[in-house]
Design a protein that fits this description.
The protein is mostly helical. It has helices at about 35-50, 50-55, 55-110, 110-120. The chain is built from 4 helices and no strands. It is rod-shaped and about 155 Å long.
């Protein structure tokens, strides 16, 4: 079995001339010029598109540059998020310290010594000395009590 390849024809079709001077031109005999490998390679490169005309080095450099740009963009986003987290963390620490200061001041207001002094001023604590009142019947009218201290004594009963 043999493969026979025919040479390609490079026939140039003549342009038509105006109809008044038109003459019939016969195509010349086909040239049997051998087709070289460079000519066929050039044709294939043109038909494959733009990416085929770009060298492998340029393609690889483009891919590497795109990867570097993508990684830089990602690291910039990550850095921005870390800055936001740092600012949020510092704000939380500031709020925690403010809360601790408020708790401390409110705890001081409810300390036992403060409560006792305020209750003593309002006569809400047990007295330091107890005076025994003599027993009497319920029908007897009791005398007015005697207060020691600064509380004003006003009579609420009339005699």
């Amino acid at each position: 079995m043999s493969v026979v390849s025919l040479p390609r024809r490079n026939v140039v079709v003549p342009r038509s001339t105006p109809s008044s001077t038109r003459t019939r031109v016969r195509p010349s005999a086909p040239t049997t010029k051998p087709v070289t490998r460079e000519e066929t390679r050039g044709r294939h490169v043109r038909t494959q598109g733009r990416l085929a005309s770009i060298s492998v080095l340029k393609k690889s450099v483009t891919i590497v540059v795109a990867a570097v740009m993508l990684s830089l963009f990602g690291s910039m986003l990550e850095t921005n998020r870390q800055v936001q987290l740092h600012s949020l963390q510092s704000q939380v620490l500031q709020d925690q310290s403010t809360y601790a200061a408020q708790v401390g001041s409110l705890t001081n207001l409810s300390a036992p010594s403060v409560v006792v002094s305020q209750a003593n001023a309002l006569h809400l604590v047990n007295p330091t000395s107890v005076t025994q009142v003599p027993a009497t019947s319920l029908d007897a009218i009791l005398p007015l009590p005697k207060f020691s201290g600064y509380a004003p004594v006003t009579s609420r009963t009339q005699r």
